[in-house]
Design brief:
single chain, mainly alpha, 3-stranded antiparallel beta sheet, two-stranded antiparallel ribbon, globular
Amino acid sequence: MGRGEGFYSVLERVSGKWWFLLVLLLLFFVPIYSGVTVDPREIPEATVAVLSKAFIYSFPYLFPLFKIVPIVIIVLLATIQNRAVRAFNIYAATLSLGFAFFQTTASTEKYGFAVLTGNLTVYTIVLFFWIVEAFVKKNEIVDETRSWWRYWVVPFAFLSFWYPIDLTTLEPDFSAPGILDSASGLTYCMMTPVFLAVVTLFCKRFNRAAVRVMAFVGAVTGIFNIVQWFLQPSLWWMGVLHIPLFVVSMYAFVLSYTAEG
């Protein structure tokens, strides 16, 4: 066993420990960094303010690019299979970097420059695991007939990828152009179901550590967001759009323990 394999084996074992998952969970509660003091009672409001004004929304000209690239990679996975897996791994790592530093920070009117420190920390951990996967290459496509039931993740992933919402009003917007120009391609909450759906659908063997960590973080993020958005009746649609994150993440999390690694 080489150094890479040994290191991966350690990560896989550690990622499955209850205490590691507990640490990941507790990291979500690291206080928000803000230019002004945030009253603990205002944390949900401050969190929504950061998520709504996150810096990733400052690059609308990049939205179509980050919709087209994953489509191309998925097509390549379906056609040339394992020759495209490395591109998928690198893309997942690259986006995880963007999630960590651009979706957790914002310049807000009420709180000034603010950082969701907990989210930044856990997204950085997800980034680390995908960087490791880019080197150890555990994700592997096996050319075989897939069970029909495995395709249930597709509509959930498609809804997340589409992200049919008007970012000004946060109301549903099902206009077709939104499939290519929405912000979903740069957000953890919308792309995680896509990444996990691709891995669980295409790969019989996959990096269980990377999938487990991304899925656990996704499930926790999903349930927090669902509750948070539904607590504000006018923002109910945002809550609906986070259901795929929770559902697909829970599915992938379970598979990370039961599937072949």
